[in-house]
Prior knowledge:
By secondary structure, the protein is mainly α. The chain has one domain (5-96): ACP-like (Non-ribosomal Peptide Synthetase Peptidyl Carrier Protein, Chain A). The protein contains 4 helices and no strands. It is globular and about 35 Å long. The termini are far apart.
Amino acid sequence: xxxxxxxxxxxxxxxxxxxxxxxxxxxxxxxxxxxxxxxxxxxxxxxxxxxxxxxxxxxxxxxxxxxxxxxxxxxxxxxxxxxxxxxxxxxxxxxxx
Length: 97
């Protein structure tokens, strides 16, 4: 797996960056997809992801971003939905630190 530390550090320092590029690279690696095909508005289903795949991916994101996912289920339909959700969790975590 790639080292995402520089990008993660910038996100944690509340610099204006999105988790989207990391999420796209992770999706490409984990699901053997072409990164150029993973657009922000790409539907997760169109990338061949089912609900179990998405759950497993979210657990990987939890590890990489060092965040805790809440128990409630979110409606995630696109790649951007995941990025927005992760960015929100990171912002909440940073504000509580």
